[in-house]
Amino acid sequence: MKTYEETLHWIHELLAFGMKPGLLRMEWMLKELGHPEKELTSIHLAGTNGKGSTLTYMRCILQEAGYTVGTFTSPYIERFNERISINGEPITDEELVMVANDVRPIAETLAATDLGTPTEFEVVTILSIVYFARYRKADIILFETGLGGRLDSTNVIHPILTGITNVGYDHTAILGNALHEIAYEKSGIIKKGAPLVTGVEQEEAIQVVEEKAKAKNVPVTRLNKDYFIKGHEVLQDGELFTLWTQNRTYENLHIKMKGFHQVKNAAMGIIMIEVLKEHSEFDIQHNHIQNGLLQAEWPGRFEKMSQEPLIILDGAHNKEGIASLRQTLITHYPERRKRMIFSALSDKPVNEMLSELYDCIDHIMFTSFNFPRASSASSLYDRCIYDSKDLEEDFETALRKELDRMEREDVLIVTGSLYFISIAREILKNMK
What we know:
CATH superfamily of the largest domain: Mur-like, catalytic domain
Number of strands: 17
Radius of gyration: 21 Å
Number of helices: 15
Distance between the termini: 38 Å
Structural class: alpha/beta
Largest sheet: 8 strands, mixed
Shape: globular
Strand order of the largest sheet: 4-3-2-5-1-6-7-8
Number of domains: 2
Strand content: 15-25%
């Protein structure tokens, strides 16, 4: 492959092979590549929500301390390349082409075996591992799982620290319908020798996580047991809070990302940094934590796209995400009328998700977007029992209609699937 476009075409062609949970194909490719994963110093993050934000807080703190930090995240919001980044800077087009040319012969050889063709996510995971091991060395790599943990493609790394942000009902067709089943899949990233930090709160779920950690002889640092959030205050430009740990109290911590769920994400990021310091030679000071938190931003997470009219973009793609969105809207915009544009993938329980918002939203406009698994606007409309609703299949048309209907003190929330958010964000950025 000679061009970026050719490379992306090859990667995206693999989407046709869907999701195939399991590690055999990953292990086969890594063996053929000489086990580049063993060359990495890494941290592994799983969880239903908050992985990307927690990872971002950690990255910014580590960068403030002078470290070079690689990250592997999904899905992307602006460009594919951002999934593989160094210090927040995405892999270049030229680098992606070079790494893909290393990996493609291995992937095609695998396809001819009984194991079959690798999935798109498997190949992108391999690309990241090869890039960090052979092209751009970093002091530490932060890996975010794609789905679950136990059978996720990223679960071939050998981390020095793991984190599970939370457990909620998402991807239930694959991960299970009960919290203990989902927690079992998430806790599959726990490995001997790698301490665990977790923000899991439900008793049914935390019991599974702690049992798995005990079986691996892994110490667990847990929200509301080993660290506590205190003194939370809502600010116009974010959140202020105090974090108590067994080692110290962090007072007046300021984050720009809005919502109490972001306070939890930031707190977990700090605790992971604390545990990292205890079990390694990383040197991170209090001022690095304070400054890193302030710098942390993550696109599509309650992101203000416009002040007049006020438009908020948020990737609330499951029930837990919608609940966090509701809480943030109530605390930051209690007096404003709230209109929403929503789109999601076809497998989402739309009415169950959106019911969290029915008492605080004034109108919902359903729309669709160009993605293989995207739901039509009419399907979303039919499955929602809320009275004040409308539909428009084309997002740009839906946006124009909502903007025409907005009054000065209204807020428009564009939310739903992260794939939808990616498309909507580009349109909103270019909005006249």
